[in-house]
Records
---
Amino acid sequence: MHQLLCEPDIALLFTDVVMPGGMSGSELAHQARTLRPDLPVLFASGYTGHAMIHHGGLGAGALLLPKPYLRSQLADKLVQAFKSAATRDLDSRLP
């Protein structure tokens, strides 16, 4: 994963919250952000947002796309993720 996330062409991590194999989406995002703190993350889940924030390990500010979703909903969340990342980047540059 380390080598993959160092690729500048990777612009966003899009992951399910619940994944097979023992690692959750929130754990994946945490590991990814240790390598790329500026990496936008978008989570998807078939569970409710309330359950994911309280039991899925997602922080209150996490972007969550509920399943099933429409392409337009995915597009809206992607725009939101990139805008949030751009805002964080600008805020980090301010004195």
---
Amino acid sequence: MYKKEIGQYIDSHKEEMIEDICRLCRINSEKMPYKEGMPYGPGAFQALEEALDIADSYGFTITNYDNYVGTADLNDKEHQLDILAHLDVVPAGEGWKETEPFEPVVKGDKLFGRGTSDDKGPAMAALYAMRAVKELNIPLKKNVRLILGTDEECGSSDIAHYYSIEKEAPMTFSPDGAFPVVNIEKGGLNGHFTADWEPSSELPKLVSIKAGVKVNVVPGKANASVAGFDKEVLTSIAADCEQETGVRFEMVFEDDLTHITAVGESAHASTPKEGNNALTGLLVYLTKLPFAKCPQITMIERLLELIPHRDTEGKALGIAMSDELSGGLTLAFSLLEVTQSGLSGTFDSRCPICATKENVLDVVKKNMEEKGFTLHNDSMRPPHHVDGNSDFVKTLLNAYESYTGLKGECISMGGGTYVHELNNGVAFGASLPGTDNRMHGADEFAVIDELLVSAKIFAQVIVDLCS
């Protein structure tokens, strides 16, 4: 029902939807320090204000939950469906070529810019789905609410605040994953570890390492400073190491000090194979340099033994595993800081349904302790699983098949979304199978036709679930 009308409406509002997405994507809404009335800083606050202003202008009833979350309601009837999207973004990062991160631009069939696919574009697709149903005067018996959060990338404390006030809807989907339906989200272990040692002044020496921007981002760059080396030694070994790792090494020489930047390729930590980890590449390089023997260098060598370059499955840590429903465990070494007397590091591991405290956390802790590292975690994030045979999921799949002509099926993902803690929540859209939006990387983009078909699918789902 209403497929023709929905399709015509969304197609006729294409340019308007793109401009609304661009309004949001021009705002740098990465998490910033708290300011009074702005729990995640001025960027997220501004993005929320802008999104609610857009929703208000289209006649929706809006509510602001203390600048953590904003909502737009389609009507005042019984609560049936929540659509959970987010307005915060990961940091801009390096390596953008198509445009500047917060200057969205259309090139061909794509819209480039930070947030276009994660998750401002899908959020607006959901709003336009609601707008289509509203302005087409399609009768509904129940309400759909669009929930717009501002802290999804950094722990989802915004949604925790919202659900401390409001009840979960009977059904929830988040357009923050991929089509068809993501009914399984892996569990996780963000392993934080440290080590300490006696400093050494012997040359040549490692002065420091600083790598990573966020735990859920594979580092595209990593920095180190060394002292006491000849330029020829550093550049010769760098050339060999680049051939081995695919990571490039840039150097700035300053008297006896050399500043090294390893340049790899960033990626989302849930799909570490799609990047080339500059941090582990840097460690490979450093372990090849002829440093004076000292505890610091010994610990760097041991660390690389535990998490080798391109080991994205946790093999060396002893935790590689997989199951039929949720796939394999993934591992990304994402943060590291090394000083003269110690280090602090964090890896991001996405764990399948078969993972437990005993076969993951306890194994990592034991293996790290044997090499002198202390793992500080005592628990893991459990996986999320919704029955793929439920009427709710079947309705989503039917709408997807109707508008795309593609087979609808349930899939598993490593990335966690807003629905991870909900009883009956799945990720649904907004990219089609085979599309790599470069989410969390440079030149993030959304395919415009995929945003349009997403809006149509979402509108159909609203009609089917709320009529």
